[in-house]
Structure formats: structure tokens, C-alpha cells
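The protein record now logged underneath.
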Amino acid sequence: MKPVREHSFSFTRGMNPKTLINHLAKKFIVEECTNQSEQQIFYDTFDWRLHREKLLFISSANSLKLQRFDGSEVVKAQGRKRSKYFWWDLRQSELSEKLQGIIAMRALCPIVSLSRTTHQFRLMNKDRKTVARLALGSEQATLGNIVKSLPETVYVQEIRGYESSFAKVLKHCSKLGLIPLSRAQCVERFFSASERTPRDYGGKFRVELDNNISIGRAVAKICLNLVDDMERNHGGVCSDIDSEFLHDFRIAVRRTRSLLSLLKKVLPPDTTAYFQTEFRWLGSVTGPVRDTDVCLLEKDDYLGLLPDALQKGMNLFFDELSANRVHELKLLRQHLTSQRYLNLLSKWRSFLSDPESKLFRGIRTRKCRDLADALILKRYKNFVKEGDKIYEFSPDTALHQLRIKGKKLRYLLEFFKSFYDVTEMNRFLKYMKKLQDNLGDFNDLSVQQEILSEKLDSLKAKNLQTIRFASALGGLISVLADKQKRIREEFESTYTQFSRDEVNELIQAMVAGAGKSSGSERK
């Protein structure tokens, strides 16, 4: 059986919906049925994770639902509107399970609030048989204290057995100049009333650079993009909306520091020394809260690694961690609203934008593509040279140093990605990601064990509660150490895959230009 069809149209500005009703009244018996009013709040993460999956999270009355752009419902649950939702706020429901795999640790926050009034009509033939249904909808978007009215909409619904009447209504709508709306266009109308543009943040880092751009102009374009990311995430960090605001803020800082380090030989030393010092400070003051967040996000996994008898002891650890985070967040807010921070961003923007800046003079006027080619090959060869030295009994520090070198190489590739063939670049980054994931997991486990060990060493009391706490900490450290050992054992095969000739030839060909493989051996 074919599904019942529904078509939507939008009135243009100034059109009177009564004109449509009066026009249809000449062809059908038109009877008004009911009027309905409702408020809907559309939510998404800051980086539009639902929108990218063509999904909507809507709160209305006492219900929450996840639906597709085409209007079909995915799952529904009971719940009241809130300022934000995490998937774990809806535990023990199918809705939380669906959201967990999409939004992870991000919060769903209101994007737009819509108040809708709908007037329902029946269209009948001369025998008073309903042959179509029609609804006129008027919508207003609330943005703080501002109310914005959207063009009114008409929804026409088919009745089985009266397909010709449905077609006739659609024809009249078109004849009167109403604009057809697809389901996707209906969704975009809602978001158009928001202060934000869908997908205006998120996705992979990419800055488009002209192949002939100078070094100075390229640095300015990349770093202005990064400082924009810092400022866009700043409010979410201070408001403590979710942990990813600080994560993204720190990535922007780290990328900035990496670029200053990678290009230090061509940037004006007297000026960039100040910025290197200040961005190092900014990285350090944002570290404690992020380290705490990583541990708190691992809570369920940590507890799952321990037997039930030891889990109560770990709950005490997480309670103390949460309390300490409140203190650290207060300090971070002070840093991010300080004059030192404001001065840094102001001077940095001026350095990147002022036509008289040293950034746009001297050696910085040379072609950036030539510098990027040379730096990428140099960093790649240096990375592989260091990786080749690591063997079964190499100290953990060797892997940590390789991880840092790999991160700088990856940032370098991301900065200048637009210079190179997209397919070749993505292939190389895919190979590199597997190795970086291995090194990153190894480092994360080192940091986690260090935090737990420091806590274990600080315990002094000898009551039963402390003994249980110490047992839980010791047990977890042991489990994490075993996990880290397994990851360490996987390094050799992962690195061998990355360092093979195929990958070397790929990056050589990429830097040489599309279809131009240098065929040179790695040195």
C-alpha cells in the first residue's frame, strides 16, 4: 500500500492565507476543524552532529523525539524541556542509546524555539465526503527577547481513494503562486530563524590557500581561522556547557603553537617569541581542567574494569575529582577573562591583520607552497628516522617523543592540505591516523596511571574506607598498565604498516605534484 502523501507550500511575504481558502471554497466544501498551538524547541550540538546525520531532536510539551529530516520518527520518549541534554540524562531509554552513538560527550543545546499555530481544514466534495485535508501554519521563532515571524505555510494531505482531488488542490496552490517546500526545505526554514547557520562549526580542519600565496599571508589566514575557533569556543568553556568546548579550544591553541614552532626559521623572531611564550601559558592554564575531564569521561569504563567489591572505593575518587574540577574551572575562568588573555588575542590579531606587520615583509613574501613542500618532506623523514630507532625495549619516552613529532607532522599536513591532491592527502592521513591512534592511546594510559598513582601516594589515613580506596586505585592502575602493555606490543606492527615503501612513495608523489612520483628512497 502506498503511503499517504503530504505536500507543503510556503506563502510569499504579503500573501493572505484567506485568499487560498476562498479560492478552494469555489471548488470544494471547506470546513474548519480545529486550531492547535504548540511550542517546539530544536536542539543540536555546537558542532551540528545531528544535522550532519540529517536528524532533529525536538522538545515539545512533555515529549522528546528524534526524527529524520523527511519527517519520519526515529524514537520518542517522555521528558521536559531543559537548557541542555546529554545522552546520559535520558538513561534507560532507546532515545539515549540512539543519541550516545551520535553526540558522544557533547551537549544538545537549543538552536531555535518555534511557536506554531495550526488551523485545520477539511475539503469535501458535494456529497460531503472528505477528499483532502489542509492545514495553515503560522510560526514564530523566539531568539532571546526577539520574536521573528516566518512565512506562513500550508500543508496538504492526501486521502486514499481521492488522489485526483489531492492533485487538484496542489494545482490550485501552484496557480496562486505558493512556493513548494520539500521536507528538507521545511527543516532549513526552521534553522534559518536561528542566530546560527547550520554546520557553521565543526567538521575537519581545512583552510583554503591559493597555490601562489605568500608565507606571511598563508600564516595569517591559518592563524586567524584558529583564533576564530578559540573565540567561538571561549563562551562554551566559561559557561561549562560540555567538555568539548575546552578540547576544541586547546586544539586551536596547540595548532597555533605548532605553526609558530614549525615556521620559526622564517617568522620574525623578536615578535613570535612573545607569542610562543603566551600561547604556551595559555596551553598550561587550560590543562588541569582538561586532564580532569578526560578522567571523568572515563568513569564508566574505569568502573567496568573493576570487580563490584572495589567500585565503591573508586566512586570516592570521582567525587573528589569532580570537587577539584569546580576549583580548577574557577581558576580557568579567571585566566580566560584576564587582561593577559585579552592582550594576547588583541596583539595576535593585530600581528596577523595589520598591513604594516613584519609578517608581510622580507622572507615572508616568498611562495608558501615551496616552503610547505620542503617542511613536509623534512618532517616526514625525521619522523620515520626516529620511529626506526624504536625497538622492543625502548623506553616509554621514545614513544611519547614520536607521538609529539607525529602530531606536528599531521598539523603541518592539515595546515597546507589545500596545496595537494585531495585523494593522495586523505590516503596518507588515513595511514598516519592508525599510528597516531596507537601512540595517543599509549600516552593517554600513561597520563591516567600518573594521576591515579599521585592520588594513591597521597593517601595517609588507615581506616577501612581509605583501605578500600587504595585497593581500588591499585587494582585500576594494574589493569591500565596491562592495557598499555598490549597497546605497546601493537606499536611494532602498526609502525611497520606506516613506514613501508608504499606510504613513502605516496607522500613523495603528493609533494612532487599529482602523478609525479619522485621514486626516491627514504633516507
About this structure: The first strand starts at residue 6 and ends at 10.
